[in-house]
Predict the structure.
Amino acid sequence: MVRIKGVNSDYQFDAKEKGVREVKPPPEQLYMKLFICPNDEFSTIENIPSECCHGESKTCPGRSKSGHAMIQLHQKEGISLVTDRESKIVIDQAGNIRLASQKSFEVEINGAKIRLDEQGNIELTPASSKQVKVTGDLSIAGDLTVTGTLDGKLSNSILQQLEQRFQLKSK
C-alpha cells in the first residue's frame, strides 16, 4: 500500500476478479480524487477489507485523525481542496468560490485582513496606514459604534441630521 492515494469514477476494485476494473456503463458524473492518508489505509480502488479511507480525517478508519489532505475534481461540483480539519475551498463550475471551515477563517494580503469567526462575526483590518473604502451605498442594520476621530468635513445637512437623530450638539 501507499500513503498517497488516487481514486476516480471510472475504475473500482472488483473483489471477484481481485483487481481493478473499468466501471460499465460509465458513470454519469466524472470525478477524480488525489489524497494523502497518513495511516496508509486502503482506498476504494484497492483490495479493501470492510472499511477504507476516502481522503478525509472524519471518515478514515485509521488510528490517527490528522494529516489528511485531498484534491477532488468533479464534473458537476468543480474543484475542492480539503484539509484534515475539514476546512474546504470549493470552486464550482459557475466560478463561485466557497470557503467552509469549522473554525475561524482569515485572508491576509500585504497586511490587510478579512477574518470570519465561528460565531459569524466579520472583521476587516486594513494594512498599517491604509483605509477601508466603501464605494456606493452603505447600509447598517444594527448598532453603529465609532471609536477614534472623524477626519474630513461633513456637510451641514449631514451634521443637522446627526444632531437631530442623536440629539447631539455640534461644536
In short: The two ends are 77 Å apart (CA to CA). The longest strand covers residues 31-36. Helices lie at 156-166.
